[in-house]
Specification:
Number of helices: 8
CATH architecture: 3-Layer(aba) Sandwich
Radius of gyration: 17 Å
Distance between the termini: 33 Å
Structural class: alpha/beta
Helix content: 40-55%
CATH class: Alpha Beta
Length: about 250
């Protein structure tokens, strides 16, 4: 990780779960971190635990569904740290609903956050990196739901299949331009975060899911991010698929 010390990572959805774990881990590796989420106060609490002085971190309010909000967050990152070298597109959510009975507002929220929000953040990060000739890295946090289609998760799974397509599309665009920026996706299976309770609208059901077997921890995904970033410049790790050992599908 020496190549990234003193460089700046922008992490979406950094207020809890996987995003918070990644922010904490990258700060520990000597990077500067811009953590973003709709709840800026929660991001600030996460970052302060590692960077008590606040010299190497910045918490910003950002709703990835709002293009102006994303643009303002990246502008603040440039003003504070001079630019972004690593983007981790972690913000994402899901709602349990069949295609026959789903609610349009929940479908739209998944598409806006998981797909369009990721695209907006990627576009702004690329513009920033290219303006400085930075040897940057973009990492999408996907899901094993993007590798197969879990029952009852059609629209959510579709958004994560879209992330796979967008990762490969961006790789091809970067190669066509002869760009030095790398891109990769990390797709975890069950991870113990707040995702399941939001997905199922039930804390009890979430606890039941996480109790079936030893699931992944947010720090496991953060370690995968560090591995991807640690590779030398001529190595691009395009996909990391992660499952709990006991997860059957």
């Amino acid at each position: 990780m020496n190549q990234w010390k003193g460089k700046t990572a922008f992490i979406t959805g950094a207020s809890n779960g996987i995003g918070a774990a990644i922010a904490t881990r990258l700060l520990a590796e000597g990077m500067r971190v811009v953590g973003s989420a709709r709840r800026q106060d929660r991001v600030a609490e996460v970052l302060h635990k590692v960077d008590t002085s606040g010299d190497r971190s910045l918490a910003v309010q950002c709703d990835v569904r709002d293009e102006r909000s994303v643009h303002e967050a990246f502008s603040l990152a440039r003003k504070t740290f001079g630019g972004v070298d690593v983007l981790v597109n972690n913000a994402g959510l899901g709602h349990a609903a069949t295609l026959a009975e789903g609610k349009v507002d929940e479908w739209r929220e998944m598409l806006d956050v998981n797909v369009l929000g990721l695209c907006i953040c990627t576009r702004d990060a690329l513009a920033d990196m290219r303006s400085r000739g930075a040897h940057g890295h973009i990492i999408h946090i996907g899901s094993m739901a993007g590798q197969r289609v879990p029952a009852g998760a059609g629209l959510y799974s579709a958004t994560k299949h879209a992330v796979r397509a967008l990762t490969e599309a961006l790789r091809m665009e970067l190669r066509e331009k002869g760009d030095s920026i790398r891109v990769g996706e990390i797709s975890p299976g069950f991870v113990e975060t707040g995702f399941a309770s939001n997905y199922m609208k039930s804390e009890e059901k979430a606890r039941e899911v996480y109790s079936r077997f030893k699931v992944l921890e947010a720090n496991d995904v953060a370690e995968a991010v560090v591995y991807m970033l640690s590779c030398p410049a001529h190595v691009q790790v395009h996909d990391i698929l992660m499952r709990p050992t006991e997860q059957p599908t």
